[in-house]
Amino acid sequence: MVDAVISFFQESVRNPQLITFFLAMLPITELRVALPWGMTLGGLEWYSAYFWSVAGNYVIALIILFFLEPVSSWLRQWKLWDRFFSWLFARTRRKGKLVETFEFWGLVLFVGIPLPVTGAWTGCVAAFIFGLVYRKSIFAILLGLILSATVVTILTTTGKLLISM
User: Fold this and answer.
1) Domain-embedded: residue 91
2) What is the spatial distance between Cα 147 and Cα 130, in angstroms, rounded to a whole number?
3) C-alpha angle with apex 4: 6 to 122, nearest 5 degrees?
4) Using one digit for the tens of pLDDT, what is the confidence trace for 76-95?
5) Does 11 fall in a domain?
6) Over the stretch 7-48, which tens digit does the pLDDT of each residue have?
7) What is the value of pTM for the model shown?
8) Separation CA 39–CA 11 (nearest Å)
9) Alpha helix positions (H), the chain
């Protein structure tokens, strides 16, 4: 599926900075795929791939944090969406013990450790569920993205993390 998404962007956009930016916005790829793609297949310098992947992931995080409460409240009036949000919030509660315990710094680490089911998307849901203040949450997510991008950049430049198609 990730290959199909990358292929779609490569065929339709063709600008490596924008592809990196858009890949970083998606929940499946985020910057864990966007950054290595930009540095390898996109042909970007590490600092350009770093910037565009953090920017894309951060922009979508701002949007999610701002709209999550009103959109989820509105959608929960339908049974299908209510079940989806109940599942999502329960799953995030189970995975988000770090955020619940350490709040700001827990959110930084939760977003900053580049593993599956962590990242800006899930971090936004965790911040919402655990009632973290919006301003602190957006700053914690930014710090987490910088941490994650640094780890992914190091892994990519040392050859420990490769992306191929």
Assistant:
1) yes
2) 22
3) 70
4) 999 999 999 999 888 888 87
5) yes
6) 887 788 889 999 999 999 999 899 999 999 999 999 999 999
7) 0.88
8) 18
9) 2-12, 16-25, 30-39, 46-75, 79-95, 97-112, 120-129, 134-157
